[in-house]
Amino acid sequence: MIVAFSVTPLGVGEEVGEYVAEAVRVVRESGLPNRTDAMFTSVEGEWDEVMDVVRRAVAAVEARAPRVSLVLKADIRPGVTDGLTAKVATVERHLA
What's the pLDDT band for 69 if we cut at 50, 70, 90? Predict the structure, then answer.
């Protein structure tokens, strides 16, 4: 499964990069395949391990912010691995 999620601290002002970095750090240290862009961080793995990473990423931001917003989208497709790369490669192949 691939989960794309965004953790946003609320009540800390407009500059939230240092808070978001704490969430991304948790994801990167998890060892699971992941990718971060301007809007979301995507992480790939089994249900329990991915959701644990999301939970810990939220907790890292929650430890520093009075309120946290979480947006999450999941692609649950048993048997598929390397979806983070394969899905993009398919689109690129069609664009070529």
Answer: very high
Please state the pTM of the whole predicted model: 0.91
Residue 20's closest CA among 64, 55, 52?
A: 64
Q: Extract the tokens encoding 89.
A: 């490669």
Q: Cα(91)–Cα(96) distance, rounded to whole angstroms?
A: 9
Residues 1/33, Cβ–Cβ less than 8 Å? no
Per-residue burial over 39-65, b = 16 or more CB atoms within 10 Å of its CB, e = otherwise: ebbbbbbeeeebbebbeebbebbbeeb
* Residue 53 DSSP one-character state: H
On whether the CB atoms of residues 4 and 40 are closer than 8 A, the answer is yes
